[in-house]
């Protein structure tokens, strides 16, 4: 069963020149396709919507500031089990806990600057795709 997920390459990934590296890993998974892709700067309202579940947590304000600190690459990826699959490619939130071989495990050190966002469930994907690609939903 084909699914769609929202992926964001965070400002650290863009600044460090890792767009190609990370998108390459996603592209190489058999049968997955990128159906939308855009470099864009995120405003406060978009970030508040996207990270609403984290409002009030100690890391929320610095997270939003970081996500607005430079452009991100937003993608829609489609394919078999792609929601679970991109999360597996990314690795856990803390890059030091993430296994080598995962995107966060290979390239990240600090928790906030962990390179990639990927929707964590079908419900999150639907909600997030509406925020970033309303015309594609
Ligand atoms: P994700 O789904 O793996 O991206 O993690 P969450 O949804 O829990 O958190 C959203 C983002 O907030 C993470 O990707 C990190 O960039 C950041 N974050 C989460 N937890 C922490 C934390 O404990 N400390 C800091 N500094 N940042 C965090
Ligand atoms: Mg999350």
Automatic annotation (TrEMBL):
Ranges for the Nucleoside diphosphate kinase-like domain?
2-137
> Is Cell inner membrane one of the keywords UniProt gives this record?
no
Question: Which top EC class applies here?
Answer: transferase
Query: Per UniProt, what is one GO molecular function of this protein?
Result: nucleoside diphosphate kinase activity
The reaction(s) catalysed by this protein are: a ribonucleoside 5'-diphosphate + ATP = a ribonucleoside 5'-triphosphate + ADP; a 2'-deoxyribonucleoside 5'-diphosphate + ATP = a 2'-deoxyribonucleoside 5'-triphosphate + ADP
Main localization (coarse):
cytoplasm
Pfam families referenced in this protein's UniProt entry, alphabetically? NDK
Q: Where does the chain bind ATP?
A: 10, 59, 87, 93, 104, 114
Q: Where in the cell is it found?
A: Cytoplasm
Q: Which UniProt keywords apply?
A: ATP-binding, Cytoplasm, Kinase, Magnesium, Metal-binding, Nucleotide metabolism, Nucleotide-binding, Phosphoprotein, Transferase
Residues forming the catalytic site: 117
The EC code for this enzyme is 2.7.4.6
Cofactor(s) listed in the protein's UniProt record: Mg(2+)
In terms of InterPro entries, this protein maps to: NDK-like_dom, NDK-like_dom_sf, Nucleoside_diP_kinase
CDD domains in UniProt: NDPk_I (cd04413)
Q: How does it assemble?
A: Homotetramer.
Q: Indicate the family of this protein.
A: Belongs to the NDK family.
Q: Which HAMAP family match?
A: NDP_kinase
Q: What name goes with this protein?
A: Nucleoside diphosphate kinase
């Amino acid at each position: 069963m084909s699914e769609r997920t929202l992926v964001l390459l965070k400002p650290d990934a863009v600044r460090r020149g890792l767009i190609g590296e990370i998108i390459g890993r996603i592209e190489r998974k058999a049968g997955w396709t990128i159906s939308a892709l855009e470099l864009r700067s995120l405003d406060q309202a978009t970030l508040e919507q996207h990270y609403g579940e984290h409002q009030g947590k100690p890391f929320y304000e610095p997270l939003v500031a970081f996500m607005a600190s430079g452009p991100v690459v937003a993608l829609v990826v489609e394919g078999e089990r792609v929601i679970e699959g991109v999360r597996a490619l990314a690795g856990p939130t803390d890059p030091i806990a993430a296994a080598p071989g995962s995107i966060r495990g290979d390239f990240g050190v600090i928790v906030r600057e962990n390179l990639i966002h990927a929707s964590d469930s079908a419900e999150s994907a639907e909600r997030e795709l509406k925020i970033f690609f309303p015309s594609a939903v």
